[in-house]
Amino acid sequence: MSLILSRRTLVLGAAATLAGCDRLAKNEAVRDALFSAENFHKWAQRGLMAHDALAREFRPDQISPFFRPNGTANPNTPEYKALWRNGFADWRLHVSGLVGRPLSLSLAQLHALPHREQITRHDCVEGWSAIGKWRGVPLKPILDAARLRDGARYIVFHCADDMGGGRGYYESIDLVDAFHPQTILAFALNDKPLRVANGAPLRLRVERQLGYKQAKYLMKIEAVASLEGIGGGKGGYWEDRAGYDWYAGI
Predict the structure, then answer these.
(1) Which residues does the UniProt record annotate as the domain Oxidoreductase molybdopterin-binding (predicted)?
(2) Which of 6, 74, 75, 115 is the most exposed place for a label (fewest CB within 10 A)?
(3) Which residue intervals of the chain are DSSP H helices?
């Protein structure tokens, strides 16, 4: 039987591990950094689990009958509508930033690359979840082809969604999650091309994090050394706007 570690299990297990670390606990600076909710959870998950530990995968008969759209159901901008009306034939995924070889990939090119299928559970910060079968291209070979430079520390995902107010949705992950085997650029859900409501033509699946990290309507991937100067500087749209944790591991 596989062992599934929830966020609560990780925190409790890590707390037991830390029981003998009184010296660190008495250091105010260390305590503030370590025991903030986000930093503590990141430390617990990364410290207690292998970096390539897999999120649970499910059987086909466990797939949810309906996969509820999360967040925006349609960017509805003139630029996005033009791409959608043309079947996304003119859409391109741009890979730029701290790379030695910038890329511009069509949907057909992505479809032709080796892909991965995984049946996983999407957990929304609002409290609902759904199980779906995703098919897409692992992010790692895309980044390898782009030849990340030594200074790259984060991967930023820029989306077609302007959230109705001209503030583009974006998200980011570090290289540990970027190179994880279950981190894919998904173009199909439950054996069908992504619907607009679910992020067509391409969305991120980073299976060990909460739903708001699963950026939809991808347009550009950017490798950066720092998140400062991107959006509000906190690494994602909801992180900037509502104070969500940047690290949303589950």
Answers:
(1) 89-224
(2) 6
(3) 7-17, 22-25, 28-34, 37-48, 78-85, 107-112, 139-146, 175-178, 237-242
Comparison of pLDDT for 19 and 81, the residue scoring more: 81
Q: How far apart are CA 250 and CA 139, in angstroms?
A: 20
* Amino acid in position 102: P
Please compute, for residue 141, the number of CA atoms within 13 A of its CA located in the half-sphere on the CB side: 13
pLDDT digit string (tens) for 147-191?
999 999 999 999 999 988 888 999 999 999 999 999 999 999 999
| Domain extent listing, the chain | 23-53, 55-242
pTM of the model: 0.82
Does CATH place domain 55-242 in 3.90.1150.10? no
* CA-closest candidate to residue 59, choices 9, 132, 8, 114: 132
Q: 203-205 and 218-224: which strand pairing?
A: unpaired
> How far apart (Å, rounded) are the C-alpha atoms in residues 230 and 27?
33
Whether the pLDDT of residue 13 is over 80: the answer is no
- Number of other CB atoms surrounding residue 184 within 10 Å: 25
Bridge partners for 220 per DSSP: 94, 158
Q: What is the pLDDT of residue 46?
A: 63
C-alpha 97/C-alpha 210 separation (Å) is 26
Across 63-143, where does the E strand assignment appear? 93-97, 103-105, 116-123, 129-138
User: Where does the pLDDT of residue 31 fall: very low under 50, low under 70, confident under 90, or very high at 90 and above?
Assistant: very low
